[in-house]
Amino acid sequence: MPFLIDTNLLLRSIDVNHAMNQIAVQALTRLREQGEPLYIIPQNLIEFWNVYTRPLERNGLGRTPEEARLEIQQLRSLFTLLPDTAAIYPAWEGIVSRYGIRGVNVHDARLVAAMLIHELTHIATFNVRDFMRYAEILVVEPAAI
Q1: Which of 76, 111, 118, 132 is deepest in the core (most CB within 10 A)?
Q2: Which residues pair with 5 in a beta bridge?
Q3: Minimal CA–CA distance to 11: which of 19, 23, 21?
């Protein structure tokens, strides 16, 4: 089963101080051991940079841009980075219209659109509730892996 790895799982896997770090690391390790294809898209890396460099007092990790660049290099070596394509936008537009998506949830809908275009069936995420509305994909909570 091909998996898209959600940004929150990526972030928790590198934040050793986070309560969910061990679950995140174990989930990714198990998926690798099972030989599952693991993917990310450019949006994951953009969201990762945002949180990784955001100040601690604003719920970020407070790292420097150089640290973010190096961490993203590492992520790109661990996961297959699928490209953004022109087909993602119309797929996203259809999803947000069909599901009546509002506000910040448009970003999750874009991940789903990319999954559909790249024929990914599963997403590993701590935000299970945010993705459960999408009938086109299967949502897997890291603790269940």
Answers
A1: 111
A2: 124
A3: 21
Predicted TM-score (pTM) of this structure? 0.96
* Contacts for 13 with CB less than 8 Å, ≥ 6 apart: 21, 24, 25, 28
Tens of pLDDT, residues 34-44: 999 999 999 99
Nearest CA-CA partner of 9 in 135, 134, 122: 122
Torsion of CA 127, 125, 87, 76, to 10 degrees: 130
What is d(CA 81, CA 122) in angstroms, rounded to the nearest whole number?
Answer: 16
Kindly give the residue spans of alpha helices, DSSP state H, lying in 16-143.
Answer: 21-33, 42-53, 65-78, 88-99, 105-117, 128-131
Residues 140 and 122 sit within 8 Å (Cβ to Cβ): yes
Tokens of 91: 């797929």
Query: Do 110 and 93 touch, CB atoms closer than 8 A?
Result: no
Strands 3-5 and 38-40: parallel
d(CA 70, CA 35): 26
- Backbone region of residue 18 per phi and psi (left: phi > 0; alpha: psi in -120 to 50; beta: other values): beta
